Fold:
Amino acid sequence: MAPLIEVRGLRFKYEDGTAALNGVDFQLEAGETVALFGPNGSGKTTFVLHLNGLLTGEGTVQVCGLPVNRKTIPQLRRKVGIVFQDSDTQLFMPTVLEDVAFGLLNLGIEHAAALSRAHAALETVGMARTASRAPYHLSAGEKKRVAIAGIIAMEPEILVLDEPTANLDPPGQRSLAELIAHLPQAKILVTHDIGFAQALCHRAVFFQDGVIAAGGTVEEVVSRLDWDFSVERSKFRP
Amino acid sequence: MHQAVVERWSRGNSLLHRRDPRAKIGALVVFLVALATAHRGLAFTAAGLLILLACGFIWARVPLAGAMARAGLVLPFAIVFALISWAAGDPGRAVALVIKSYLSAFAVLLVVSTTPLPVLLRGLEMTGTPQFVLLVAQFLYRYLFVIGREAEQMSRAAAARGASARKWIAASGPFRAAAGALAALFARSYARAEHIHRAMLARCFQGHFQTAQNLRFCRSDAVFVLAASLIPLAVRIAAERALPWPR
Amino acid sequence: MKIVHIPDGFLSTPVWVTLDAAAAPAIGYLASRAQKGFEQSQAPLLGVMGAFVFAAQMINFPVGAGTTGHLLGGALLAMTLGPVSASIVMTAILAIQALVFQDGGILALGANVVNMALAGVLAGYLPFALWGTTSWRRIALFAGGALSVLVSAILALSELLISGVPMSGRMVGASVAVFLVSAVLEGAITLAVIESLERIQPKLVRRPSRRTSPVLGVVAVAAVLLASVGVLFASEAPDAIQRLTHQTISEASGWPTKSLTGLAGIALIYGACLLFARVAARRRSV
Structure:
């Protein structure tokens, strides 16, 4: 079966000329969950923004069998759902329900149907009781769940989550992992949280200076690149 | 009293809360105009209107004392001008200033504490206010406290930096630190807006905000707006005609 | 901003009715220019920058002798977002302040919009538009900030005087002195923030076109005339007011003429704003 995402030789430069991506090759199969590791600024977020056409670079990017170009972007933005790192910029509507229904209304779905699908998505993430609340009053964990509801309401085929556990306490991280594990889509998790990645991901890739420097299981990548701080804890205790 | 309290009041479920916002807006405008144009018998008109509004708060199960205190925010400004008027030999105007500004604020508060802001904005849109301005107001309100929190953090950091400037540079050190903090906050806010735009595009935004709120004006709303408009007018007419006033 | 928001109950009926009637179509027009047909994607940016202005008022600027001041924002918005967007943001700010914070009246919203969102923004932008790319730049930035506050405040004061609030000549003078201090502060803050912004993110500050359009010159002259009319009226008012306080409001004979002059002045502002909005919109689409 053809991979859901096929990226070859992706290059991208910022406006000021600095190269953000220097030839990235990447594949995502149906049902997989892949972790993207790497130092800050190595291109992980820049990379995922190419998957739904928010950024366009050189090279080939194929998503669900379609090349990413101006004509396919409207469809692809429904098929690829990105949950951004900052929930406050993602939840921009005045109430939770309006925010979750935002994407559905943009797709032209009729009003009543959009609201009922939004309610269903909120049920899935366990946030149905917050439907008429303002996002400002929710906790970080609740906001993240509502953001996910807003994406899964659109029934994407691929889910991308950028640093989902940032700002969450360990119980919050655990319940988020449970939620994500139950979602049927193929997923890409950009994360620094090794434990989180180990719990959810089949494999991992490691970004460095705009290319993928290594790939394999989470443990392989982490040990090869010395990416796990917890291993060294004993060194620092007096 | 923090804004969050009024927001909580607005999420209640009384009969008044459930009225269509357009009915409440209409009644409010009639009330405000009746009050603004009142001259003779103002004290009695005001007493009647105050009782009317107080009944409104009680009916809506919103704490009356809290609401009366909150409406009092307008009083410092009004009292200053009242004192000026009194000193200039116009006590009638002094009293009118205080009464009218307080009652107007109290009336607006009744509407705002029984209508969540997004619903109120939608009601304004359906009564002809330009949608774009209301959209801007909607986003302003959404990010008011988010950016306020950032400003607080930066303000403390700026104060700390400025405090280390040598005294003989006078105020310029802290002043420029504050300007730098403001510029940084500006840039961050602008960047945040760009990220919001990106998140909107990622969810298939086509350039126009579809509305999720559907308002339905029903018979109770019609009855309400009629009653809520006629009663203040009746109070005013009664106060002006029924009692003998010196010409 | 907190100094010059007029609550309900202060303005006489002809004044608030006229200003509401003036503000409504002006804002409707500017909103349609800002929105450009159906394109509403700017709304979040303008909303966020409105929230910025609110939040910016929390940052204290020490001005010596233990006093602090804060930014009001109209000129800064005009120099970064452009005058049309700045007017819309200011209008949204005024609406939120009136509704959510009970700061400023509802019937008086038209007056506050004319003072701050229309005249204030125009006064804040004009020096920048005319001299922002010349060697007088720093003075233009300062003047923009100062004039936006001064014009808004003088207009508010005039409206209160026309409505019959009795202030003696000395009190009017004292108020204008306070306005001048706020104006200088706003000018200084605006200058400092714009210069700081240019260091960190130069693209955020507008580059006004080098072509000095003759229409702008006309509007500038009209604005100066207006300001003089305003000041003249304010200084003239004390004598009229002394007459007024010896009569009841409804029987003041000098009152209708004074209010007519004032209202004519305000109509001039409205015309200037409409004209400027048209000019600004045309230049942006070039």
